[in-house]
Amino acid sequence: MLFMQSYCEANSSISHTWVDEGIAPCFYFTLVPAILLAAAFFLGTIHCMCYQRYGTAMEPKFIPRSHLYGVQQAISVLLLVQFLGGVVWQGAAGGELPGYVVLYGCFSALGWAWAIALLRTERRRVLLMDRTRGHSTFLLLFWALAFSSENLAFVSWYSPHWWWGLENYQQQVQFALWLIRYIGTGLLFAIGLKAPGLPQRPYMLLINEDERDVENSGQNLSGRTEPNASTWQGFREKVRLLVPYMWPKGNIFLQLLVIFCLGLLGVERAINVFVPIYYKNIVNDLTGGSSWHTVATTVGIYVLLKFLQGGGAGASGFVSNMRSFLWIRVQQFTDRVVQVRLFAHLHSLSLRWHLGRKTGEVLRSIDRGTSSINSLLSYIVFSIFPTIADIVISIIYFVTYFNAWFGLIVFICMALYLTLTIIITEWRTKFRRDMNLQDNNAKSKAVDSLLNFETVKYYNAENYEVGRFEDTILKYQVSEWKTQASLAFLNQTQNVIIGSGLLAGSLLCAYFVTEGKFQVGDYVLFGTYIIQLYTPLNWFGTYYRMIQKSFIDMENMFELFEEEEEVKDAENAGDLLYEQGKVEFENVYFSYTDGKEILKDVSFTVPPGQTVALVGQSGSGKSTIIRLLFRFYDVQGGCIRIDGQDISKVKQNSLRAHIGVVPQDTVLFNNNIRDNIRYGRISASDREVEEAAVAADVHDKIMSFPEGYDTQVGERGLKLSGGEKQRVAIARTMLKAPQIILLDEATSALDTQTERNIQASLAKVCSNRTTVVVAHRLSTIIGADQILVISDGRIAERGGHDELLLKGGMYADMWMKQQQAQDSDSSSDTETKDRKSEKMQPPSTSTSSGHHGH
Fold it and tell me: 576-658+738-831 adopts what CATH topology?
């Protein structure tokens, strides 16, 4: 029954601070909650107001996921509940309930409730001007005060008014509640120093690093991981990505192979136990005078077991070889699935990512990552787990068959070995990671230099490129030396531990043999078993290093997997229902980087079957309109429609199936001309390919080559001229026969005569098709149904050719400049011809005539 008689106990006052060798409970439990509540409400309120007024909500991707943050919340809630629970318990226990107990419980509960609210506020909001990291000073001060106040209870250790005596049930409960408070506040302060639920770097720095543009998309793969970070960081995420490759889902045959291989692994463990036992039996039979039949049987069984186990240290036996042979199919499955999924993922990434990638670095990361997955699975399943199982089995066997001393020796030796191996290997991680970084740099520079060999030749920069490549090799070798030197140090440490354990166990076993407690065969059993155990244990360090190396090598590949697709199909997106081909841009805004808009409120319509031309200065946004229509990027404002359907709401494949593009910069595959044209429609026949080439005015040129359509075009089509590549690209688009055609400076690389021929071909293929043309030469788009003049991301003028000339605006000015340039070129050509003809004329006779006159 709850009964509150007075604020303090009988014969006590709040003014009494020291009573019976301790702090007066009434004074203590009044002062502490008052200070905590004041700190929570006054300082906390100011702090919360600052967060609400000057802070901003953090993006979810910057908020770290942490179990320790959950522990923080759980402890805070537990402390709040125990304060209220203590008041309820003391009231229900009957007797006097002083007022300070109620005040202590209620004030403390309010203070901790406010602290929990602020903890959640800091989790969700951040002060932009704040350059520090971790919890606010207020929360750390609050937790420090709470922990310090609980430590003040030790001052009253000898006071009978406190719970230290544990003389009755009430004191025991109070002690238990204090213990919860003491441990809870101490943990909160300790965990709060780490601030697990908050970003470990300033928020503005995280935002700035996250911003990527076309020129710098952040594809320095090896630079994204902290050099001193542990390879086990993010272990759960890495294993989660590996799980689909561990189990061959959907393939029953491979699944049975996996189960059978695991069964063989168990058989190997049993064989490893029986080999030293039968070796011991041979020695005992020989020294004990057993019959030949018994000895021969024992030797036969021993040899059979050795055949199954392996002939010597590191040699694989029948079971191991069989398991490795059967595992090949599983390993090939994993290798194929990883490569195919990663290749498909790279093709799904946005144009922005591909414009910023380093091809050599990406390919190197794929190669290392794929091989590392196979190594990782093999080492974990067939090396690490079996070795640990052998260690556990050996300790149990030595304790049961010999005595606890042998088990203790093996345990200490194994523990030291594994601990030092892990510590030293973790220390070596930064050397291995830096070596990968230098390796990536070397391969990236080599690939970049070879891809641009023409530029190297143009500027006689061969020696410069060779020297730059040699510098990267030298940096790689410095990191390689550190890696190999630290490996030698690790191996020597392991040898010392193994040798010490073998010496101690052998001496102890030999002593028991001399004392008559063990037989000679027991010493042989110990020596054989321990050496047999040390052989895989000696490789355990290698296995651990290889697993860690695999994790390091996989980091770059995981970063590739983590690259998110910028342009994604919407949920439940349907196919584009093509009807007439009407294209609409409605109030479109777009920017590659924040703060620099490329397109500003662009609106226009391309009626079905008509041609719209886009003209303007370089960088005005003409090609961006083409890319947006093909949905290489998504617009930031407005929308683009085809036949009234928002292209962001339909599947990308169905959209692009109806659109054909002839780009400004044509790149061909390193294949023959026929297959490059057939790329427009893979199922096309050779006759259809040739018809497309005829329409693109390139058939005759192809037939003039010695190998005709089988002519190899070289890497990126470098064996063909710019005009030939452009015409092959036009033929490829004609073969696709799309309903909507996008021409991005399609004839920019052609001479005047070829351009006229191509224009006639394009007029055929574009007839009755919706066409958007980006043109630099205005003479090529005179016949366009509508011309849009793009300036500074906006449509400055629109109309037909004659209409725009009459306006006398930007288009008319561009037209006059191009005409003047053509006239000056023509006059220059005429003057050059006249000078050549003058040089070819005979000398004049005017001099001789003058002489006669004289």
Answer: Rossmann fold (3.40.50)
* Rounded Cα distance, 639 and 657, in Å: 20
CB 495 within 8 A of CB 416: no
Q: Can you name the residues that pair with 770 across neighbouring β-strands?
A: 740
Please give the class, per CATH, of domain 221-562.
mainly alpha
Other Cβ atoms closer than 10 A to 650: 19
Residue spans of the domains in the chain: they are 25-209, 221-562, 576-658+738-831, 668-737
> What is the spatial order of strands in the sheet that 583-590 belongs to?
599-606, 583-590, 637-642, 645-646
**Could you tell me the CA-to-CA distances from 455 to 447, 448, 450, 470, 543 in Å, in that order?**
14, 11, 10, 19, 46
Which alpha helices (H) appear in 247-291, and where do they start and end? 252-288
Q: What is the DSSP string of 375-402?
A: HHHHHIIIIIHHHHHHHHHHHHHHHHHT
User: In this structure, are strands 55-57 and 786-791 parallel, antiparallel, or unpaired?
Assistant: unpaired
353-379 core/surface letters (b: 16 or more CB in 10 A; e: else): beebbbebbbebbbebbbebbbbbbbb
- Find the length of the chain: 854
CATH superfamily of 668-737: P-loop containing nucleotide triphosphate hydrolases (3.40.50.300)
Q: Encode burial over 149-172: b for 16+ CB neighbours within 10 A, e otherwise.
A: bbeebeebeebebbbbeeeeeeee
Closest CA to 242 of 75, 381, 410, 46: 381
Domains 576-658+738-831 and 668-737 share a fold: yes
Q: Could you tell me if 138 and 39 are in contact, meaning their C-beta atoms sit under 8 angstroms apart? A: yes
- Gap between the Cα atoms of 162 and 25, Å rounded: 8
Whether 215 shows a pLDDT value over 50: the answer reads: no
Please determine, for residue 178, whether its predicted confidence score (pLDDT) is greater than 80: yes
| φ, ψ at 682 (rounded to 5°) | -60, -30
Cβ contact 615:790 at 8 Å: yes
Q: What is the pLDDT of residues 572-604, one digit of tens each?
A: 777 888 888 888 888 888 887 766 778 888 888
